[in-house]
Amino acid sequence: MSDVVLETKNLTKEFKGFTAVNNVSLRVERGHIHALIGPNGAGKTTCFNLLTKFLVPTSGQILFNGRDITMAPPSQIARQGIIRSFQISAVFPHLSVMENVRIGLQRPLGNSFHFWQSEKKLSALNDRCMQLLAEVDLEKFADTMTVDLPYGRKRALEIATTLGMEPELMLLDEPTQGMGHEDVHRVTELIKKVSAGRTILMVEHNMSVVSGICDRISVLQRGALLAEGTYQEVSNNPQVMEAYMGTTSGALEGAH
């Protein structure tokens, strides 16, 4: 029996007669980088919103480390160690990179920031901040105003603030969206690096990213699970090719 961190059983979400997520049963194994892919409108974001409790499922179950968290509120989900990046870790543009990470570290989950803490207390967090910045290759940008960071580096900062919340399961929502080739490569390498000892579930459009770093891939189409397996397995699946390409000829390569 494999070690499953997150499992969904027949997860379903309906909006006024429209089924956005339809009986999805996922199993995310501990230590894996697991991708959720699919054409536009496949239900990937709705699925993420259900997992982080931004939405309540119509039916089905969500289990985290074997515990039923289907009806748990978002703050409780975060406290248990499911942290979604690029949503809750939006950066403050007019603070330095270091200050952004420090705010992330002092955030008691589900509560407000403690802006009134003394500078002395806050500077005690600086060593941990620098460790996190080192993990995402941002040490030399510690004193840079966040607004001045290149786009790809801002994404790295968001990952650093997410890591500061010590996630057991990191959910990354389209981490390379809108990036040029160089940034895509840097952020892909970064995800691979920070995945050591962690589990990552990511929604991603860029197939070269998915093929390069993911252990397992779940393909959604029209809200339902179409296929699951390694990149090799899903990319050779005729149904997956058809979903992406509108044809059974051609490959998944380059389908964004």
Automatic annotation (TrEMBL):
Superkingdom to which the source organism belongs: Bacteria
Swiss-Prot/TrEMBL keywords: ATP-binding, Cell membrane, Membrane, Nucleotide-binding, Transport
GO cellular component, one term: plasma membrane
Residue ranges annotated for the ABC transporter domain, each copy included: 6-247
UniProt key word Cell membrane: yes
Pfam families: ABC_tran, BCA_ABC_TP_C
Record Gene3D superfamilies: P-loop containing nucleotide triphosphate hydrolases
InterPro entries (UniProt xref): AAA+_ATPase (IPR003593), ABC_AA/LPS_Transport (IPR051120), ABC_transporter-like_ATP-bd (IPR003439), BCA_ABC_TP_C (IPR032823), P-loop_NTPase (IPR027417)
GO molecular-function term, one example from the UniProt record: ATP hydrolysis activity
UniProt xrefs under PANTHER family: ABC TRANSPORTER ATP-BINDING PROTEIN (PTHR45772:SF3), CONSERVED COMPONENT OF ABC TRANSPORTER FOR NATURAL AMINO ACIDS-RELATED (PTHR45772)
Name of the molecule in the record: ABC transporter ATP-binding protein
